[in-house]
Amino acid sequence: MLPAVARGHWGWFHPCARLSVRMSSTGIDRKGILAERVAVVTGSTSGIGFAIARRLAQDGAHVVISSRKQQNVDRAAAQLQREGLSVAGIVCHVGKAEDRERLVATALEHCGGIDFLVCCAGVNPLVGSTLGTSEQIWDKILNVNVKSPALLLSQLLPYMEKRKGAVTLVSSVAAYFPRMELGVYNVSKTALLALTRTLALELAPKDIRVNCLVPGVIKTDFSKVLHGNESLLKYLREYLQMQRIGEPEDCAGIVSFLCSPDASYITGENIAVAGFSSRL
């Protein structure tokens, strides 16, 4: 049984409104391709997660955003609501079972069901070698980056399987091209590729699709260790076929597509959005 939703700071919070018309990027009103569907997006108050949450809402979905800090949830939710989008939010540390329970309960209470899960939350508390990493850091990275998506999905599954939903995990191009200074983070993001394929097999009989977004170097606070390094940035611009660093919005459209009926026969795929071919 899910516990009752804890009452906290809900001054800005409103139930998911039944909004069915959204403005496309071309400025033309259209029926949202995700209208009346419900998406839960973790790690979604900034960066890639925020861009994905905004795009899903623009395409008609009712979106529940979350992250670890109340002030970030409040700010992100208020910004999206000012844009006329159907968005609610709650604090959730995905590594904590009680927070995951509360996230699920919130989505059910305010939106009536769950169709899509997008797992953007991730951590990398250490820049350093794999073998020099403490057991505590190993546990933290694997707990948040690998275990939590599977555990959260297991909590959502009874509600998603009634609605033939879709799951998108967010890995990193570091899974294909590990950088020495990212150590255990590389390992965790590689594990997500295998988790995607495994869950896709397990959930296909339930008509739930599981795919993985594999971003390259995207300009976010999380990746400052990469795009904030001028010499590395120069190298990347020369190496990338697209000749630029990615923006969070570059990742948003593909996730909306993967949630949509247009992707109804796509599952178990790891899709790179990296400015170059992951097969180089």
TrEMBL record:
One Gene Ontology biological process: cellular response to oxidative stress
SUPFAM superfamilies: NAD(P)-binding Rossmann-fold domains (SSF51735)
Keywords carried by this UniProt record: Oxidoreductase
Domain of life: Eukaryota
Pfam families linked: adh_short_C2
Oxidoreductase listed as a keyword: yes
A GO molecular-function annotation: carbonyl reductase (NADPH) activity
A cellular component annotation (GO) from this entry: nucleoplasm
Family: Belongs to the short-chain dehydrogenases/reductases (SDR) family.
Name by which UniProt lists this protein: Dehydrogenase/reductase 2
The species this protein was found in: Macaca mulatta (Rhesus macaque)
Lineage: Eukaryota, Metazoa, Chordata, Craniata, Vertebrata
